[in-house]
Design brief:
mainly alpha; about 210 residues
């Protein structure tokens, strides 16, 4: 005896679908109830957001939410003066590597790195010319120090690798960021020439620290 179509659907199709829907709904409710409560980007400062990113709850967020949150965190850096950005970069924070790895693990990490660079350059060119010159002199001096010949001691890449990485990185950035970075490198090279320093990428070891 053949089953009527309606009875067939009720017996063999509807129950499994209902079970799957119930499971999906239950998972959705559980996920919503246990989803990490991140500090509000519109009211939180950079430090609060940074500490959240360094924690375990950040890892439980969907990747799209993690990426959006880090981008929002980067924008909070615009609240800080350039001097404070430099101080933060020089500070030895054990969470730097943790947060850095989490950012690199995101599929959109290049967009985030570009956002960091954009903030740095924007804040730099907001400085008066005299202050920019002082910072350029400082950067040029650091480039020419003996410490720069052993960047691995600071966990930094060699000059050659840095040049390759920077070229590859910039090739994937927006024209605006490329232009701002190019201007910064030109200004830094001119400052080195003014100080009588050799080209950073072409100097010899005996020229370091001179």
């Amino acid at each position: 005896m053949k089953w009527p179509r309606r009875q067939f659907l009720l017996r063999w199709f509807v129950p499994p679908v209902a079970v799957m829907l119930a499971i999906g709904l239950g998972w959705g409710i559980w996920r919503w109830a246990t989803y990490p409560k991140a500090p509000d980007p519109s009211t939180s400062n950079f430090e609060t957001m940074y500490n959240f990113v360094a924690g375990k709850d950040f890892d439980r967020m969907f990747e799209s939410d993690r990426q959006a949150y880090v981008l929002a965190m980067v924008e909070r850096l615009r609240d800080k003066p350039f001097e404070q950005l430099v101080a933060m970069a020089m500070k030895r924070d054990p969470n730097y590597r943790v947060v850095g790895k989490k950012i690199r693990d995101l599929s959109g990490h290049q967009q985030i790195e570009g956002a960091f660079l954009s903030v740095f350059l924007d804040k730099f060119y907001e400085l008066p010319e005299a202050k920019r010159t002082i910072y350029l002199m400082t950067f040029a001096t650091l480039q020419n120090s003996k410490l720069a010949d052993h960047p691995e001691r600071l966990g930094l890449p060699s000059a050659d690798r840095f040049k390759r990485d920077m070229t590859r990185f910039l090739s994937r950035q927006s024209p605006k960021i490329q232009a701002k970075t190019g201007q910064f490198l030109i200004d830094l090279r001119r400052q080195r020439e003014t100080m009588g320093l050799p080209d950073y990428m072409q100097r010899t070891p005996d020229q370091a620290g001179s």
